């Protein structure tokens, strides 16, 4: 039985879109149909912003491919940037002493730690532990992202004045082992996410300040435009998208989303393999412009 979700397009003003697994197809590219749908949504009067776990430099090729520049949420919500002017609007840094203790634990477990930096202040995308060999997964991750980095002998002794996030890249079973150790030692003092990146063939463990999530970044942008939470559509596929899916007026999960993400959403659409984002945006634009097909006005088939 088809479930129908009523969307009031007069109320909707903003769409927040995840990148990996949502905007990007399994080949990590933006398809022509997805690009066209993004531009059609903008022309219809919607504010379209991207919300990603990547840092800004890791997103530049994607932004160029989709050719859409506006405010965006980066590093899982820790940074908000006006990509038209490359100006940082907001950032949430990690507390340095806590970060040193956290990196000490990760290094003691045999991992070269990745510390994401505020590039505009520190001059690098990542600091990496220099006295521990980098595993093959981390080396692959750095090649895929073409990220700039600086080796620091012991990140557990670094000042961390520009650190936004720390983490490791490793096989899933090792990520699970390290995550359990961090949870045991630090509890609610940090936020932990383990994300699979199929296009890169790795799993990433990310550790943030507890105030950080994509929804907080999205709200920062929304406030600048006088947009309320119920006027926002959020679309994603992984666990770092759950806060925005739960809090937005309409939380939309991709068909390739993890089960817990689909459970948190109001609707599940097609996968990124099948250009589900494009199909959904085309429906939204049709609702806004009155050019509907196979649905009643104000309704979208789920």
Topology, element by element:
Elements: E1 4-6, E2 14-17, H1 19-23, H2 32-43, E3 47-50, H3 56-66, E4 71-74, E5 79-82, E6 87-91, H4 96-108, E7 114-117, H5 119-122, E8 126-129, H6 136-145, E9 149-152, E10 163-170, H7 172-186, E11 191-197, E12 202-208, H8 214-224, E13 232-236, H9 242-247, E14 250-253, H10 259-264, E15 267-268, H11 276-289, E16 299-301
Parallel strand pairs: 2-3, 2-13, 8-9, 13-14, 14-15
Antiparallel strand pairs: 1-16, 4-5, 5-6, 7-8, 7-10, 10-12, 11-12
Helix pairs in contact: 2-11
Highlighted features:
single chain; 302 residues; alpha/beta; 6-stranded mixed beta sheet; 5-stranded parallel beta sheet; 16 strands; 24% strand
Descriptive report:
The chain is of the alpha/beta class and 302 residues long. It contains eleven helices and 16 strands. It has a six-stranded mixed sheet with strand order 9-8-7-10-12-11. Strand 13 (232-236), helix 9 (242-247) and strand 14 form a beta-alpha-beta unit. Helix 2 runs parallel beside helix 11. The N and C termini lie close together (10 Å).
């Amino acid at each position: 039985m088809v479930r129908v979700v009523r969307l009031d397009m007069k109320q909707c003003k903003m769409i927040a879109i995840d990148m990996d697994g949502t905007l990007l197809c399994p080949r990590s590219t933006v398809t022509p149909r997805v690009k066209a749908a993004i531009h059609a949504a903008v022309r219809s009067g919607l504010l379209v912003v991207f919300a990603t776990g990547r840092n800004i430099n890791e997103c530049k090729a994607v932004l160029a491919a989709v050719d859409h520049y506006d405010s965006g949420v980066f590093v899982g919500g820790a940074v908000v940037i006006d990509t038209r002017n490359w100006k940082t609007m907001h950032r949430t840094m990690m507390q340095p002493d806590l970060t040193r203790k956290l990196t000490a634990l990760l290094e003691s477990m045999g991992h070269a730690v990745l510390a994401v930096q505020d590039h505009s202040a520190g001059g690098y995308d990542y600091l990496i532990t220099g006295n521990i060999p980098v595993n093959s997964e981390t080396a692959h991750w750095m090649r895929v992202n073409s990220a700039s980095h600086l080796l620091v002998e012991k990140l557990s002794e670094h000042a961390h004045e520009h650190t936004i996030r720390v983490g490791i890249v490793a096989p899933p079973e090792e990520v699970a082992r390290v995550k359990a150790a961090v949870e045991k030692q630090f509890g609610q003092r940090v936020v932990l996410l383990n994300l699979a990146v199929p296009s890169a063939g790795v799993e990433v463990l990310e550790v943030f300040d507890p105030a950080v999530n994509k929804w907080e970044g999205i709200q920062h942008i929304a406030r600048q435009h006088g947009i309320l939470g119920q006027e926002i559509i959020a679309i994603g596929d992984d666990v770092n998208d759950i806060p925005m899916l739960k809090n937005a007026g309409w939380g939309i999960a991709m068909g390739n989303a993890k089960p817990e993400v689909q459970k948190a959403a109001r609707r599940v659409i097609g996968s990124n393999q099948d250009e589900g984002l494009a199909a959904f945006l085309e429906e939204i634009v049709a609702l806004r412009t009155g050019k509907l097909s196979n649905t009643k006005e104000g309704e979208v088939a789920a």
